[in-house]
Amino acid sequence: MIEPTYPGAVAPERTCTFASLGVQLRALEWGDPRAMPIVLAHGMWDHAHSFSVLGPLLAARFRVIALDARGHGDSTWASAYTWPTDVLDIVNVMRALGEPVHLVGHSKGGGQVTDAACIAPELVRKVVNIDGFGPPSLPTGDDPVPHMVAFLDARRRIAGRSTWRPYASLDDLVERRRAQNPRLTREWLRYFLFFGALESPDGWRWKHDPQMGHGFGPWRPEWIGPSYAALHAPMLAVVGSEHDTWGPLPEPLLSERLSHVKRLERRVVAGAGHFVHIEKPRETAALICEFLES
Amino acid sequence: MRIAHGRVTLELHEVTHRDGPALLLLHALYESSASWGEAPAWPGRVYALDFSGHGRSDWLVGGGYYPEMLVADADATLAHIGGAALAGAGIGAYVATLLAGARSALVPAALLLPGAGLAGGGAQPDFNQPRQPLSPPPRQPGCDPMVHVLNRDARPPDYVEPFARAAKRLLLVEDGTARPPWWEAARGVTRAEVAPAELSVALARLAAA
Protein backbone atom coordinates (compact mmCIF):
# COMPACT_ATOMS: atom_id res chain seq x y z
CA MET A 1 0.00 0.00 0.00
CA ILE A 2 1.25 3.50 -0.83
CA GLU A 3 2.02 5.75 2.13
CA PRO A 4 -1.05 7.94 2.77
CA THR A 5 -0.80 11.71 3.07
CA TYR A 6 -2.48 14.18 5.39
CA PRO A 7 -2.72 17.97 5.14
CA GLY A 8 0.20 19.50 7.06
CA ALA A 9 1.88 16.19 7.82
CA VAL A 10 5.53 16.17 6.76
CA ALA A 11 7.66 13.05 6.48
CA PRO A 12 10.49 13.07 9.06
CA GLU A 13 13.77 14.56 7.88
CA ARG A 14 15.72 11.93 9.81
CA THR A 15 15.14 8.96 12.07
CA CYS A 16 17.40 7.97 14.91
CA THR A 17 17.62 5.38 17.65
CA PHE A 18 18.35 5.70 21.36
CA ALA A 19 19.37 2.82 23.63
CA SER A 20 17.71 2.66 27.03
CA LEU A 21 17.86 -0.21 29.52
CA GLY A 22 18.31 -2.77 26.76
CA VAL A 23 15.50 -1.39 24.60
CA GLN A 24 16.00 0.45 21.28
CA LEU A 25 13.84 3.57 21.00
CA ARG A 26 13.11 4.89 17.50
CA ALA A 27 12.59 8.61 17.02
CA LEU A 28 11.49 10.84 14.12
CA GLU A 29 13.30 14.13 13.61
CA TRP A 30 12.52 17.45 12.01
CA GLY A 31 14.54 20.68 11.99
CA ASP A 32 18.15 21.83 12.20
CA PRO A 33 20.18 19.24 14.15
CA ARG A 34 22.15 22.10 15.73
CA ALA A 35 19.04 23.85 17.07
CA MET A 36 17.81 23.47 20.65
CA PRO A 37 16.17 20.04 21.07
CA ILE A 38 12.53 19.43 21.92
CA VAL A 39 11.67 15.85 22.86
CA LEU A 40 8.05 14.84 22.21
CA ALA A 41 6.31 11.90 23.91
CA HIS A 42 3.04 10.44 22.61
CA GLY A 43 0.06 8.93 24.43
CA MET A 44 -1.12 5.37 25.07
CA TRP A 45 -1.51 3.21 21.90
CA ASP A 46 -0.08 6.08 19.81
CA HIS A 47 3.35 6.53 18.27
CA ALA A 48 5.73 9.24 17.07
CA HIS A 49 3.65 10.08 13.97
CA SER A 50 1.16 11.59 16.40
CA PHE A 51 3.44 14.64 15.97
CA SER A 52 3.73 14.56 12.17
CA VAL A 53 1.88 17.87 11.91
CA LEU A 54 2.92 19.62 15.14
CA GLY A 55 6.58 18.56 14.86
CA PRO A 56 7.27 20.21 11.50
CA LEU A 57 5.58 23.42 12.76
CA LEU A 58 7.99 23.53 15.72
CA ALA A 59 10.95 22.63 13.50
CA ALA A 60 11.30 26.18 12.18
CA ARG A 61 12.97 27.05 15.51
CA PHE A 62 13.90 23.78 17.18
CA ARG A 63 15.39 20.34 16.62
CA VAL A 64 12.25 18.22 17.07
CA ILE A 65 12.69 14.63 18.27
CA ALA A 66 9.47 12.58 18.48
CA LEU A 67 9.92 9.27 20.31
CA ASP A 68 8.20 5.94 19.85
CA ALA A 69 7.72 4.68 23.41
CA ARG A 70 9.00 1.16 24.10
CA GLY A 71 6.59 -1.39 22.68
CA HIS A 72 5.00 1.23 20.39
CA GLY A 73 5.66 2.17 16.76
CA ASP A 74 9.12 1.10 15.62
CA SER A 75 10.71 0.88 19.08
CA THR A 76 11.53 -2.62 20.29
CA TRP A 77 9.35 -4.65 22.62
CA ALA A 78 10.26 -5.16 26.27
CA SER A 79 9.49 -7.94 28.76
CA ALA A 80 7.29 -5.64 30.82
CA TYR A 81 5.82 -2.15 30.66
CA THR A 82 5.66 0.19 33.59
CA TRP A 83 5.31 3.92 34.09
CA PRO A 84 8.77 4.30 35.72
CA THR A 85 10.55 2.52 32.85
CA ASP A 86 8.81 4.75 30.27
CA VAL A 87 9.95 7.77 32.31
CA LEU A 88 13.52 6.41 32.54
CA ASP A 89 13.51 5.95 28.76
CA ILE A 90 12.78 9.68 28.35
CA VAL A 91 15.52 10.54 30.86
CA ASN A 92 17.98 8.31 28.99
CA VAL A 93 17.13 10.04 25.70
CA MET A 94 17.83 13.41 27.35
CA ARG A 95 21.12 12.12 28.73
CA ALA A 96 22.11 10.93 25.25
CA LEU A 97 21.34 14.38 23.78
CA GLY A 98 23.86 15.87 26.21
CA GLU A 99 22.25 19.28 26.72
CA PRO A 100 19.12 20.50 28.54
CA VAL A 101 16.03 20.10 26.37
CA HIS A 102 12.40 21.15 26.23
CA LEU A 103 9.88 18.38 26.80
CA VAL A 104 6.44 18.14 25.17
CA GLY A 105 4.08 15.27 25.93
CA HIS A 106 0.51 14.36 25.12
CA SER A 107 -1.80 12.38 27.44
CA LYS A 108 0.25 9.56 29.01
CA GLY A 109 3.35 11.15 27.42
CA GLY A 110 2.44 14.46 29.09
CA GLY A 111 2.42 12.85 32.51
CA GLN A 112 5.64 11.04 31.75
CA VAL A 113 7.61 14.07 30.54
CA THR A 114 6.46 15.86 33.69
CA ASP A 115 7.79 12.99 35.80
CA ALA A 116 11.03 12.90 33.80
CA ALA A 117 11.51 16.61 34.55
CA CYS A 118 10.95 15.94 38.26
CA ILE A 119 13.55 13.16 38.27
CA ALA A 120 16.21 14.85 36.11
CA PRO A 121 15.75 18.62 36.53
CA GLU A 122 19.28 19.33 35.29
CA LEU A 123 18.36 17.96 31.85
CA VAL A 124 15.14 19.94 31.35
CA ARG A 125 14.44 23.54 30.37
CA LYS A 126 10.64 23.72 30.10
CA VAL A 127 7.75 21.27 30.03
CA VAL A 128 4.61 21.35 27.89
CA ASN A 129 1.92 18.95 29.06
CA ILE A 130 -0.97 18.48 26.63
CA ASP A 131 -3.93 16.99 28.53
CA GLY A 132 -1.74 14.54 30.44
CA PHE A 133 -3.00 15.11 33.97
CA GLY A 134 -4.20 11.59 34.77
CA PRO A 135 -7.61 9.98 35.04
CA PRO A 136 -10.29 11.61 37.25
CA SER A 137 -10.60 8.53 39.47
CA LEU A 138 -9.27 5.00 39.78
CA PRO A 139 -10.35 3.31 36.56
CA THR A 140 -10.53 -0.01 38.41
CA GLY A 141 -12.96 0.88 41.19
CA ASP A 142 -12.51 0.34 44.91
CA ASP A 143 -11.88 -3.39 45.30
CA PRO A 144 -8.45 -4.32 43.94
CA VAL A 145 -8.96 -8.10 44.30
CA PRO A 146 -11.13 -8.76 41.22
CA HIS A 147 -8.83 -6.50 39.24
CA MET A 148 -5.80 -8.55 40.28
CA VAL A 149 -7.68 -11.74 39.32
CA ALA A 150 -8.41 -10.26 35.88
CA PHE A 151 -4.74 -9.28 35.52
CA LEU A 152 -3.53 -12.76 36.46
CA ASP A 153 -6.09 -14.41 34.14
CA ALA A 154 -4.92 -12.11 31.33
CA ARG A 155 -1.26 -12.97 32.03
CA ARG A 156 -2.10 -16.67 31.76
CA ARG A 157 -4.05 -16.04 28.54
CA ILE A 158 -1.44 -13.94 26.76
CA ALA A 159 1.50 -16.06 27.91
CA GLY A 160 2.03 -17.43 24.43
CA ARG A 161 0.64 -14.57 22.37
CA SER A 162 3.22 -12.98 20.12
CA THR A 163 1.08 -11.06 17.62
CA TRP A 164 -2.32 -9.41 17.23
CA ARG A 165 -5.08 -10.94 15.16
CA PRO A 166 -5.11 -9.50 11.65
CA TYR A 167 -7.72 -6.99 10.46
CA ALA A 168 -8.86 -7.33 6.85
CA SER A 169 -7.94 -3.76 5.92
CA LEU A 170 -6.41 -0.56 7.24
CA ASP A 171 -9.95 0.88 7.26
CA ASP A 172 -10.96 -1.74 9.81
CA LEU A 173 -8.21 -0.46 12.12
CA VAL A 174 -9.46 3.08 11.46
CA GLU A 175 -12.99 2.14 12.56
CA ARG A 176 -11.67 0.30 15.62
CA ARG A 177 -9.78 3.39 16.76
CA ARG A 178 -12.62 5.76 15.87
CA ALA A 179 -14.93 3.81 18.17
CA GLN A 180 -12.55 4.83 20.94
CA ASN A 181 -11.76 8.38 19.80
CA PRO A 182 -14.70 9.62 17.68
CA ARG A 183 -13.33 13.16 17.40
CA LEU A 184 -10.39 11.94 15.29
CA THR A 185 -11.19 12.06 11.57
CA ARG A 186 -10.95 9.04 9.32
CA GLU A 187 -8.52 10.98 7.14
CA TRP A 188 -6.15 11.51 10.09
CA LEU A 189 -6.51 7.95 11.33
CA ARG A 190 -5.81 6.48 7.89
CA TYR A 191 -2.59 8.48 7.80
CA PHE A 192 -1.64 7.87 11.44
CA LEU A 193 -2.51 4.18 11.74
CA PHE A 194 -0.65 3.34 8.53
CA PHE A 195 2.53 3.92 10.58
CA GLY A 196 1.16 2.10 13.63
CA ALA A 197 0.30 -1.12 11.81
CA LEU A 198 1.96 -3.70 9.59
CA GLU A 199 0.52 -5.09 6.39
CA SER A 200 1.04 -8.79 5.77
CA PRO A 201 -0.55 -11.29 3.36
CA ASP A 202 -3.36 -12.11 5.82
CA GLY A 203 -4.20 -8.50 6.75
CA TRP A 204 -3.20 -5.59 9.01
CA ARG A 205 -1.87 -5.93 12.54
CA TRP A 206 -1.10 -3.34 15.22
CA LYS A 207 2.61 -2.76 15.66
CA HIS A 208 2.40 -2.21 19.41
CA ASP A 209 3.20 -5.07 21.74
CA PRO A 210 0.17 -7.29 22.50
CA GLN A 211 1.64 -7.98 25.95
CA MET A 212 1.44 -4.32 26.93
CA GLY A 213 -1.01 -2.83 29.33
CA HIS A 214 -1.62 -3.67 32.96
CA GLY A 215 -2.88 -0.35 34.37
CA PHE A 216 -3.47 -1.48 37.93
CA GLY A 217 -1.76 -1.85 41.26
CA PRO A 218 -1.90 0.34 44.33
CA TRP A 219 -1.43 3.59 42.41
CA ARG A 220 -3.89 6.41 43.28
CA PRO A 221 -4.99 9.44 41.22
CA GLU A 222 -4.67 11.55 44.40
CA TRP A 223 -0.89 11.15 44.11
CA ILE A 224 -0.70 13.04 40.81
CA GLY A 225 -1.08 16.60 42.14
CA PRO A 226 1.44 16.27 45.01
CA SER A 227 3.98 14.70 42.62
CA TYR A 228 4.03 17.98 40.64
CA ALA A 229 5.55 19.76 43.66
CA ALA A 230 8.94 18.26 42.68
CA LEU A 231 8.82 19.99 39.27
CA HIS A 232 11.39 22.80 38.99
CA ALA A 233 10.95 23.58 35.29
CA PRO A 234 8.14 25.90 34.19
CA MET A 235 5.11 23.99 32.87
CA LEU A 236 2.65 24.98 30.18
CA ALA A 237 -0.57 23.03 30.76
CA VAL A 238 -2.72 22.78 27.62
CA VAL A 239 -6.21 21.29 27.31
CA GLY A 240 -8.93 21.49 24.68
CA SER A 241 -12.25 23.19 25.36
CA GLU A 242 -14.36 20.22 24.22
CA HIS A 243 -15.45 17.20 26.22
CA ASP A 244 -13.81 14.04 24.84
CA THR A 245 -12.84 10.44 25.62
CA TRP A 246 -9.93 10.57 28.12
CA GLY A 247 -10.26 14.23 28.99
CA PRO A 248 -10.06 17.04 29.81
CA LEU A 249 -10.57 16.62 33.56
CA PRO A 250 -13.39 18.53 35.25
CA GLU A 251 -12.02 22.02 35.90
CA PRO A 252 -12.03 21.91 39.74
CA LEU A 253 -10.04 18.65 39.71
CA LEU A 254 -7.59 19.94 37.08
CA SER A 255 -7.06 23.19 39.01
CA GLU A 256 -6.47 21.26 42.22
CA ARG A 257 -3.83 19.03 40.62
CA LEU A 258 -2.13 21.95 38.89
CA SER A 259 -2.11 24.00 42.10
CA HIS A 260 1.01 21.99 43.08
CA VAL A 261 3.01 23.27 40.06
CA LYS A 262 5.35 26.06 41.13
CA ARG A 263 5.78 27.79 37.75
CA LEU A 264 2.60 27.24 35.75
CA GLU A 265 1.02 28.69 32.64
CA ARG A 266 -2.33 27.41 31.43
CA ARG A 267 -3.99 27.59 28.02
CA VAL A 268 -7.27 26.24 26.68
CA VAL A 269 -7.48 25.62 22.93
CA ALA A 270 -10.97 26.39 21.66
CA GLY A 271 -12.65 23.75 19.54
CA ALA A 272 -10.24 20.92 20.41
CA GLY A 273 -10.81 17.71 22.39
CA HIS A 274 -8.17 15.45 23.95
CA PHE A 275 -5.95 15.37 20.83
CA VAL A 276 -5.29 19.12 20.91
CA HIS A 277 -2.14 18.93 18.76
CA ILE A 278 -3.92 16.93 16.07
CA GLU A 279 -7.19 18.87 16.00
CA LYS A 280 -5.57 22.34 16.27
CA PRO A 281 -1.88 21.95 15.34
CA ARG A 282 -1.18 25.57 14.33
CA GLU A 283 -2.74 27.02 17.48
CA THR A 284 -0.88 24.46 19.60
CA ALA A 285 2.45 25.17 17.89
CA ALA A 286 1.98 28.92 18.41
CA LEU A 287 1.27 28.44 22.13
CA ILE A 288 4.28 26.18 22.54
CA CYS A 289 6.69 28.50 20.72
CA GLU A 290 5.45 31.49 22.70
CA PHE A 291 5.96 29.62 25.98
CA LEU A 292 9.34 28.15 25.13
CA GLU A 293 10.74 31.41 23.83
CA SER A 294 9.42 33.68 26.59
CA MET B 1 11.83 -27.27 35.93
CA ARG B 2 11.24 -24.34 33.63
CA ILE B 3 7.98 -22.36 33.58
CA ALA B 4 6.94 -19.93 30.85
CA HIS B 5 5.50 -16.60 31.98
CA GLY B 6 5.04 -14.10 29.17
CA ARG B 7 8.46 -13.58 27.58
CA VAL B 8 10.26 -14.82 30.69
CA THR B 9 11.18 -18.36 31.60
CA LEU B 10 11.21 -19.00 35.33
CA GLU B 11 13.20 -21.57 37.28
CA LEU B 12 11.14 -23.67 39.68
CA HIS B 13 13.02 -26.06 41.97
CA GLU B 14 11.25 -29.16 43.16
CA VAL B 15 12.79 -29.45 46.62
CA THR B 16 10.99 -32.57 47.90
CA HIS B 17 8.74 -35.01 46.07
CA ARG B 18 6.69 -36.84 48.68
CA ASP B 19 2.94 -37.15 48.16
CA GLY B 20 0.78 -34.64 49.94
CA PRO B 21 -0.22 -30.99 49.83
CA ALA B 22 2.14 -28.66 47.99
CA LEU B 23 4.14 -25.78 49.45
CA LEU B 24 5.58 -23.01 47.27
CA LEU B 25 8.48 -20.97 48.70
CA LEU B 26 8.82 -17.34 47.54
CA HIS B 27 12.20 -15.78 48.32
CA ALA B 28 13.07 -12.25 49.43
CA LEU B 29 14.41 -9.43 47.26
CA TYR B 30 17.93 -10.03 45.83
CA GLU B 31 17.76 -13.68 46.98
CA SER B 32 16.76 -16.90 45.20
CA SER B 33 15.37 -20.37 45.77
CA ALA B 34 18.83 -21.33 47.08
CA SER B 35 18.39 -18.92 50.01
CA TRP B 36 15.97 -21.34 51.74
CA GLY B 37 18.84 -23.73 52.51
CA GLU B 38 18.05 -27.37 53.14
CA ALA B 39 14.56 -28.75 52.51
CA PRO B 40 12.13 -27.68 55.22
CA ALA B 41 9.96 -30.28 56.96
CA TRP B 42 6.61 -30.40 55.16
CA PRO B 43 4.15 -33.25 54.70
CA GLY B 44 4.01 -32.99 50.88
CA ARG B 45 5.78 -31.63 47.82
CA VAL B 46 7.93 -28.51 48.29
CA TYR B 47 8.73 -26.13 45.45
CA ALA B 48 10.95 -23.05 45.48
CA LEU B 49 10.60 -20.40 42.76
CA ASP B 50 13.21 -17.98 41.44
CA PHE B 51 11.34 -14.73 40.73
CA SER B 52 12.10 -13.07 37.39
CA GLY B 53 15.41 -11.19 37.63
CA HIS B 54 16.63 -13.54 40.38
CA GLY B 55 18.47 -16.86 40.62
CA ARG B 56 18.24 -18.89 37.42
CA SER B 57 15.09 -17.21 36.10
CA ASP B 58 15.34 -14.83 33.14
CA TRP B 59 15.91 -11.12 33.59
CA LEU B 60 13.29 -8.79 32.16
CA VAL B 61 14.50 -7.15 28.94
CA GLY B 62 14.26 -3.41 29.60
CA GLY B 63 13.67 -3.64 33.36
CA GLY B 64 10.08 -3.01 34.32
CA TYR B 65 9.96 -4.97 37.57
CA TYR B 66 6.91 -4.36 39.74
CA PRO B 67 5.42 -6.45 42.53
CA GLU B 68 2.32 -7.47 40.57
CA MET B 69 4.61 -9.01 37.94
CA LEU B 70 6.13 -11.17 40.68
CA VAL B 71 2.60 -12.11 41.76
CA ALA B 72 2.04 -13.19 38.15
CA ASP B 73 5.32 -15.18 38.28
CA ALA B 74 3.97 -17.09 41.28
CA ASP B 75 0.53 -17.45 39.65
CA ALA B 76 2.10 -18.92 36.50
CA THR B 77 3.72 -21.43 38.86
CA LEU B 78 0.35 -22.30 40.43
CA ALA B 79 -1.01 -22.81 36.90
CA HIS B 80 1.74 -25.40 36.49
CA ILE B 81 1.71 -27.23 39.85
CA GLY B 82 -1.91 -26.67 40.92
CA GLY B 83 -2.85 -25.36 44.34
CA ALA B 84 -0.21 -24.78 47.02
CA ALA B 85 0.28 -23.21 50.41
CA LEU B 86 2.69 -20.28 50.16
CA ALA B 87 5.61 -19.23 52.34
CA GLY B 88 7.12 -15.89 51.35
CA ALA B 89 9.97 -13.82 52.82
CA GLY B 90 10.37 -10.05 52.42
CA ILE B 91 8.92 -9.05 49.08
CA GLY B 92 7.91 -12.73 48.76
CA ALA B 93 5.63 -12.19 51.78
CA TYR B 94 3.96 -9.25 50.04
CA VAL B 95 3.56 -11.32 46.87
CA ALA B 96 2.16 -14.24 48.92
CA THR B 97 -0.43 -11.97 50.55
CA LEU B 98 -1.68 -10.61 47.22
CA LEU B 99 -1.75 -14.06 45.61
CA ALA B 100 -3.43 -15.74 48.61
CA GLY B 101 -6.23 -13.15 48.26
CA ALA B 102 -6.53 -13.27 44.47
CA ARG B 103 -6.31 -17.08 44.18
CA SER B 104 -7.96 -18.13 47.44
CA ALA B 105 -9.36 -21.29 45.81
CA LEU B 106 -5.79 -22.45 45.07
CA VAL B 107 -4.01 -21.18 48.17
CA PRO B 108 -5.21 -22.76 51.44
CA ALA B 109 -2.77 -20.74 53.58
CA ALA B 110 0.15 -18.33 53.39
CA LEU B 111 3.07 -17.87 55.77
CA LEU B 112 4.60 -14.40 55.79
CA LEU B 113 8.22 -13.99 56.90
CA PRO B 114 10.42 -10.89 57.30
CA GLY B 115 13.19 -10.36 54.75
CA ALA B 116 14.62 -8.03 52.12
CA GLY B 117 12.11 -5.88 50.27
CA LEU B 118 9.48 -6.24 53.00
CA ALA B 119 8.67 -2.54 53.30
CA GLY B 120 8.96 -1.44 49.68
CA GLY B 121 8.75 2.36 49.44
CA GLY B 122 6.32 2.78 52.33
CA ALA B 123 2.58 3.41 52.46
CA GLN B 124 2.60 6.05 49.74
CA PRO B 125 5.16 7.89 47.59
CA ASP B 126 7.21 10.44 49.49
CA PHE B 127 6.70 13.57 47.43
CA ASN B 128 9.23 15.55 49.44
CA GLN B 129 12.13 13.20 48.75
CA PRO B 130 13.97 13.85 45.50
CA ARG B 131 13.57 10.72 43.39
CA GLN B 132 16.84 9.18 42.20
CA PRO B 133 16.04 6.26 39.95
CA LEU B 134 19.23 6.41 37.93
CA SER B 135 21.69 5.01 40.41
CA PRO B 136 21.07 1.37 41.25
CA PRO B 137 22.85 0.12 44.39
CA PRO B 138 26.03 -1.93 44.15
CA ARG B 139 25.14 -5.01 42.20
CA GLN B 140 23.83 -7.92 44.23
CA PRO B 141 25.34 -11.20 43.10
CA GLY B 142 23.05 -13.29 40.95
CA CYS B 143 20.25 -10.84 40.28
CA ASP B 144 19.37 -8.12 37.80
CA PRO B 145 20.36 -4.70 39.26
CA MET B 146 17.04 -3.35 37.95
CA VAL B 147 15.12 -5.37 40.59
CA HIS B 148 16.15 -2.58 42.96
CA VAL B 149 12.98 -0.69 41.96
CA LEU B 150 11.04 -3.34 43.90
CA ASN B 151 12.42 -1.71 47.03
CA ARG B 152 10.65 1.54 46.24
CA ASP B 153 7.09 0.69 45.21
CA ALA B 154 4.32 2.24 47.31
CA ARG B 155 2.26 -0.22 49.38
CA PRO B 156 -0.81 1.46 50.86
CA PRO B 157 -2.27 -0.64 53.71
CA ASP B 158 -5.83 -0.19 52.41
CA TYR B 159 -4.71 -1.79 49.12
CA VAL B 160 -3.39 -4.89 50.89
CA GLU B 161 -6.28 -5.29 53.32
CA PRO B 162 -8.87 -6.61 50.80
CA PHE B 163 -6.37 -9.27 49.68
CA ALA B 164 -5.65 -10.24 53.29
CA ARG B 165 -9.40 -10.48 53.96
CA ALA B 166 -9.96 -12.64 50.87
CA ALA B 167 -7.12 -15.02 51.82
CA LYS B 168 -8.16 -18.32 53.41
CA ARG B 169 -5.54 -18.18 56.14
CA LEU B 170 -2.53 -15.96 56.93
CA LEU B 171 0.26 -16.72 59.39
CA LEU B 172 2.70 -13.92 60.14
CA VAL B 173 6.14 -14.46 61.64
CA GLU B 174 7.22 -11.46 63.72
CA ASP B 175 10.84 -11.41 64.85
CA GLY B 176 11.18 -7.92 66.22
CA THR B 177 12.25 -6.27 62.95
CA ALA B 178 10.30 -3.18 61.86
CA ARG B 179 6.93 -4.00 60.32
CA PRO B 180 5.63 -1.85 57.45
CA PRO B 181 2.04 -0.48 57.39
CA TRP B 182 0.89 -3.07 54.82
CA TRP B 183 1.98 -5.87 57.19
CA GLU B 184 -0.04 -4.35 60.03
CA ALA B 185 -3.07 -4.23 57.73
CA ALA B 186 -2.68 -7.93 56.84
CA ARG B 187 -2.19 -8.77 60.51
CA GLY B 188 -5.37 -6.91 61.41
CA VAL B 189 -7.77 -9.16 59.48
CA THR B 190 -9.78 -11.80 61.29
CA ARG B 191 -8.08 -14.86 59.85
CA ALA B 192 -4.52 -13.67 60.49
CA GLU B 193 -2.44 -15.40 63.19
CA VAL B 194 1.04 -14.65 64.48
CA ALA B 195 3.32 -17.67 64.05
CA PRO B 196 6.47 -18.69 65.94
CA ALA B 197 9.74 -17.35 64.53
CA GLU B 198 11.28 -20.81 64.05
CA LEU B 199 10.62 -21.71 60.37
CA SER B 200 10.05 -25.43 61.01
CA VAL B 201 7.56 -24.67 63.80
CA ALA B 202 5.79 -22.06 61.66
CA LEU B 203 5.56 -24.51 58.74
CA ALA B 204 4.17 -27.20 61.04
CA ARG B 205 1.49 -24.72 62.08
CA LEU B 206 0.87 -23.88 58.41
CA ALA B 207 0.50 -27.57 57.53
CA ALA B 208 -1.99 -28.19 60.33
CA ALA B 209 -5.14 -27.09 58.56
Describe it.
The complex is a heterodimer of chains A (294) and B (209). With 294 residues, chain A is of the alpha/beta class. Helices cover 33% and strands 20% of the residues of chain A. In chain A, the strands form two sheets. Chain A has an eight-stranded mixed beta sheet with strand order 1-2-4-3-5-6-9-10, with helices on both faces. In chain A, strands 7-8 form a two-stranded antiparallel sheet. In chain A, a hairpin with a 2-residue loop joins β7 and β8. In chain A, α2 crosses α3. The N and C termini of chain A lie far apart (44 Å). Chain B has 209 residues and is of the alpha/beta class. Helices cover 25% and strands 18% of the residues of chain B. An eight-stranded mixed beta sheet of chain B has the order 1-2-4-3-5-6-7-8, with helices on both faces. In chain B, β7, α4 (181-187) and β8 form a beta-alpha-beta unit. Classes of the chains: A alpha/beta (294), B alpha/beta (209). The A-B interface holds A 20-23, 70, 77-82, 84-85, 87-88, 91, 118-120, 143-145, 148-149, 151-152, 155-156, 158-160, 211, 214, 216-220, 223, 226-227, 229-230 and B 4-8, 52, 58, 60-69, 71-72, 75-76, 79, 98, 101-103, 124-125, 127-128, 130-134, 146, 149, 153-156, 159, 162-163, 166.
